[in-house]
Amino acid sequence: xxxxxxxxxxxxxxxxxxxxxxxxxxxxxxxxxxxxxxxxxxxxxxxxxxxxxxxxxxxxxxxxxxxxxxxxxxxxxxxxxxxxxxxxxxxxxxxxxxxxxxxxxxxxxxxxxxxxxxxxxxxxxxxxxxxxxxxxxxxxxxxxxxxxxxxxxxxxxxxxxxxxxxxxxxxxxxxxxxxxxxxxxxxxxxxxxxxxxxxxxxxxxxxxxxxxxxxxxxxxxxxxxxxxxxxxxxxxxxxxxxxxxxxxxxxxxxxxxxxxxxxxxxxxxxxxxxxxxxxxxxxxxxxxxxxxxxxxxxxxxxxxxxxxxxxxxxxxxxxxxxxxxxxxxxxxxxxxxxxxxxxxxxxxxxxxxxxxxxxxxxxxxxxxxxxxxxxxxxxxxxxxxxxxxxxxxxxxxxxxxxxxxxxxxxxxxxxxxxxxxxxxxxxxxxxxxxxxxxxxxxxxxxxxxxxxxxxxxxxxxxxxxxxxxxxxxxxxxxxxxxxxxxxxxxxxxxxxxxxxxxxxxxxxxxxxxxxxxxxxxxxxxxxxxxxxxxxxxxxxxxxxxxxxxxxxxxxxxxxxxxxxxxxxxxxxxxxxxxxxxxxxxxxxxxxxxxxxxxxxxxxxxxxxxxxxxxxxxxxxxxxxxxxxxxxxxxxxxxxxxxxxxxxxxxxxxxxxxxxxxxxxxxxxxxxxxxxxxxxxxxxxxxxxxxxxxxxxxxxxxxxxxxxxxxxxxxxxxxxxxxxxxxxxxxxxxxxxxxxxxxxxxxxxxxxxxxxxxxxxx
Length: 761
Description:
The protein is of the alpha/beta class. Among the domains are: 337-484, Reverse transcriptase/Diguanylate cyclase domain (Alpha-Beta Plaits, 2-Layer Sandwich); 499-651 and 660-668 and 725-755, EAL domain (TIM Barrel, Alpha-Beta Barrel). The two termini are 22 Å apart. The model has no long low-confidence stretch (mean pLDDT 80).
């Protein structure tokens, strides 16, 4: 932050300041105070020198470092006024009998406040230009609550002022300025997103300490107990030291900032609102007359909290409605494929192997001919009638869904093979009755394929594949109904065993490779990170994608070895990119087995140290389904990883069935919205509603929103307009091997740097 040649004088300046700060605290000891009182010049030197050193350090920061120069110039000007007032007071006015009031020192001390206000607001504006309505309300709650309590401190007993108008105005200006500063400090912290960066903590602590010292001084002065060289002087010195230290803190990179837990953004405003309510109740119950300003500020905080609650309820309700719409078929209002698959996954996860269940795939025969002959309008009417008739025929004990086109799915959670055959036969009988449409009567037929758990599979993919195969069998032999065969299971088993052995060999031979897909920061326009996507470079089959082997590795207990190799390769590549000047983060996916491995945090820490990659450069992604299997153990592992400084993300957000129930409790930083919603948000109003609601929810919870599946400029522009944080997809770049992606990254970084320098020039 400062050139090497300038570090010596900077350290010397802070060392001198530390000496004078210790002298301030030493003066509190009665023996030391008595000794210093005999040498008044020591009191003057101690006070004046410390203030001037602090001002010099902040002014040097403003002159030598370009970043946030405007904010620190304003702060230096304010502290300069404060120091001039103090020097004049200690050197001249304090020795007059009586000391003049108001004096030139009062003018300088009061001049500090507008500069301090402007500096804090300028710093906030530079670091956070986009502020949502919910964040504004959080800032209002915090500011009003702080002002309410500060008013009690500064205004209680502050009545009956007499004397010249100038004296009265100056006397009123001090408490008003301190009350405003108290509200501003806590309000700005809320507007910053409750950040815990050192620069913010030190600055707010320093200025807050100054305000507290002013309050103690006002109290002691009112009661005639103020003594020069007491705790107030020490606290004023600590306040200046805090501001000077804040000025020289290294700014944290955006990807390394540790956002507050999602609950902080909800709990803190609620606590502040309750504190304001408690202040009003205390004044009422104890017949304690609060200053009118305190009551007004407390009321403002409570009203803002009510508005914040209404806004949050509206956002959650909008999101819930959008999620419901996303799981409902537009035409028939039946559950769609997504909800059907989620329900099947949930039932299989909870299913006792001794309790059978059945899945049926229903496909209408020759439906395309009806559409081509009579038009899509009549085809839609027919689908509505088919959906209604199927719903009546199967009896409601399960789930009927439209999977797409003329295909329907049926889930029978309590049916064995005999019961499934009985229901399927009833469905065929119902469908073979004529359908009366607009001026035409149609006869249709259907083909149904049945698969039963656990005979034909124990997971969703296997069951649906066997039911689909059976449906095509029924269609090809015109039987109308077919059951999954054991031969298909045998063939699938042989293929699985062969693939499993080949995968074991591939892990031993290092056949896994990583392709990386860039993630674009929509605010800066820079590629801030990449997602690592594993591929299997099979000796004979070529490049095998994850859906061809990951599930097999998970079931066979190989996912731990696989994840270890992926993590090692990703961190090694991250190190190489950073050495080449590409400051990128890398995201790696975790599975359920990984989260249940107690040694995972230790292994990740060792790998980070081995490759010299900072924890903030590693992002780990988990799916909602993974978290739901054993939420307590998964959360414990994620807490350990997050404590190391690693960012965590929920991948494929919106595809799970318990998102809203668990989201507030999960230790995650980012939400990655599934491509199914993002890809059509420029043309589908429902997808657009889901994306907008999810962006708003993520920001309200202090998280970033990463949109996957951006495949055209229209979608990208929509996401930019909705304040999405990061995007990835084919429109930006397909996943690529490092040797092809690196030149692209370097070229894009050079172009962005040239544009930035040209803009500054």
